[in-house]
Amino acid sequence: MILDKIDKLLKEVNELKASNAEEIEALRLKYLSKKGEITSLMADFRNVASDQKKVVGMKINELKQAAFEKINYLKDQYETAENDSEDIDLTRSAYPIKLGTRHPLTIVKNEIVDIFSRMGFTLADGPEVEDDLHVFTKMNFAADHPARDMQDTFFVETNPEDVTKNILLRTHTSSVQARIMENSKPPIRVICPGRVYRNEAISARAHCFFHQIEGLYIDENVSFKDLKQVLLTFAREMFGADTKIRLRPSYFPFTEPSAEMDISCHICGGVGCGFCKHTGWVEILGCGMVDPNVLELCGIDSKKYTGYAFGLGVERITNLKYQVSDLRMFSENDTRFLKEFEAAN
After folding, report:
1. How far apart are CA 193 and CA 215, in angstroms?
2. How far is the C-alpha of 169 from the C-alpha of 129, rounded, in Å?
3. What is the pLDDT of residues 187-235, one digit of tens each?
4. Same structural domain for residues 172 and 318?
């Protein structure tokens, strides 16, 4: 009977489902096309008794309307889901991304820069891929000077006819000082933070790259006493007001006289412990008065001006503050290690 067929189709229409545009189109063709199920009912309608035509006609219209509404609903639902999917970054991590923290080296570098900035030093920067002229020659390293053997260098390009034109990865940030001196007139008061490279075996105590901060002050009548006072102020700002310093004679090609500076161990208070090897002192930097040859090579009158310079390793200071035993941890990007410094940010 036609009414039973209509009820059956109506039930089918109400339960229709589709997951893509092709399935929706197939449903439209099945029920609403010229050869569809509902159209075929119109052919059967001609055979319906006159007294039932009104009821059957209303049922067919109800079925047709339900089919239109259901298919349009499925179409709208699919298009909405497709538009929403366009806003999804498929390369994004599937898990929530936590906020990061500053790297411990960055934390300590910023603290060092802040201390010297308050003492009147300005920031200076230079290239990491440098020439021999600025890394060695203008820093008083002669072409055959044995001091060149102190630093194992990564050479990028060599020039046998003129070593000053060798291209290399800088072994210290003193190259920035050379560029500042040759392009500026005294007074000069700068600090030069940056990454440096040396051809060393990687271990818990050494790495092929690390970070330095060097300082330079050139003016008339600059003395070693000025250097000592600046370094004492830095040590007390960095490690505490009770920190003591001592200067031991040393040698660097670019300073004369030269010294290495120790601070009293802030862990044992200078009494002696395993960290300071039971001496009560820990070395933190090298320093000295700028050699007159360096001033002359950089175009500064050494008879009129004097200056001092110092250099410290950021990793070394970070180790002293946070007692990190393995230098490799600074470059491995282990989030468990970095997470320990959240409170220091």
Report:
1. 9
2. 5
3. 999 999 999 998 888 887 778 889 999 999 999 999 999 999 999 999 9
4. yes
- Do 66 and 138 share a domain, yes or no? no
The CA distance from 327 to 319, in Å, is 8
* b (16+ CB within 10 A) / e for 245-266: bebeeeebbbbeebbbbbbbbb
- Note every long-range contact of 51-55, with CB atoms under 8 Å and residues 24 or more positions apart, other chains counting: 55/3
How many Cα neighbours within 13 Å face the side chain of 195? Answer: 10
Give the range with max mean pLDDT: 94-103, 173-182, 264-273: 173-182
Residues 14 and 81 grouped into a single domain: yes
Q: Which residue has the higher pLDDT, 151 or 283?
A: 283
pLDDT in tens, 47-79: 777 777 777 778 778 878 888 888 888 888 877
- Based on the structure, what is the number of domains in the chain? 2
For residue 44, pLDDT beyond 80: no
Helices (H), the chain: 2-14, 21-32, 37-45, 53-86, 104-117, 132-135, 174-183, 224-239, 292-297, 314-322, 335-339
Bigger pLDDT: 329 or 301? 301
pLDDT confidence tier of residue 83, bands split at 50, 70 and 90: low
Strand partners, 307: 218
235 lies in the same domain as 330: yes
Distances (CA, A) of 325 to 276, 280, 328: 13, 19, 9
Same domain, 127 and 260: yes
325 DSSP assignment: -
N-terminal to C-terminal alpha carbon distance within the chain: 80
- Residue 121 belongs to domain spanning: 104-344
Last-in-domain residue among 86, 113, 133: 86
Where residue 128 sits, what CATH number does that domain have? Answer: 3.30.930.10
Give me the pLDDT at residue 25, please.
Answer: 83
